[in-house]
C-alpha cells in the first residue's frame, strides 16, 4: 500500500515535471528569433554538457546496482506514460539517509564534482531504470522542480543522449555518448536551452557507430530550483 501511494505521488510529480517541461519548450525566451542565439552554439553546448568517462569503477557500479536492484525489480516497467514522454521505465527517489555508507561515498564524489559548495542540492536522488527497449523523448527538465545543475551516473549500459536547441532542433543538435560508469553534468545552456533525450536502442548511433542500449539505470542528482521560478 505504501509503495502504491508513493508511486502514485511520484507519477503525479513526474506528470508535473514533464507538463512544465513542455511549457518551457513552448514559452521560453530561447524561442526568440534572434540569430545570435545559434551563434557558436556548439562551443557553448560542449562547455555546458560535460561527460566524465569512467567516473566510477566497476566495483562502485556494482555497489550501486546491488543496492538499488532489489527495490527496482519489485516495480513493473511502465510503457504507457500519460504524456508519452518516457517509455519502458521504473523509477524512485531516495533520500541520502536511505543509501548505504558505500553508496553515499560514491554519491559524495558526484556531489563534489558537479555541485559547487554554495549550490543547494535536491535532497532526493532520482533513480531511473530504463528497460532495454525503453527510451526518453526530448524534454527540458521543469524549472519548477530542478535548478541549474543536473548530474547523472549511467550504470549497466552505454547509451546516447541527444540534445537539440529548443526552437532550432534541426540545425543545433548534437549526440553525446554516455558510456556505462560515466557521469554527465548538464548546466547553463545545455540544461535550459536544449531538449535532451535518450535514444531507443535501434536508433542509438554515435559518430555513425551503433551503440546498443541494454537495461540502463541512471542515478541523477539535481540542484534545487531557483527560488524565483
Ligand atoms: O536517465 C537520464 O540520465 C536522464 C533522465 C531524464 O532525462 C529525466 O529524468 O528527465
UniProtKB/TrEMBL annotation:
Cofactor(s) required, per the database record: Fe(2+)
Pfam family, one: 2OG-FeII_Oxy_2
Domain of life the protein comes from: Eukaryota
Domain Alpha-ketoglutarate-dependent dioxygenase AlkB-like: 83-222
Protein keywords: Dioxygenase, Oxidoreductase
GO MF assignments: dioxygenase activity
GO biological process, alphabetically ordered: DNA damage response; fatty acid metabolic process
A GO term from the CC aspect: mitochondrial matrix
Protein known as: Putative alpha-ketoglutarate-dependent dioxygenase ABH7
Organism, scientific name: Ooceraea biroi
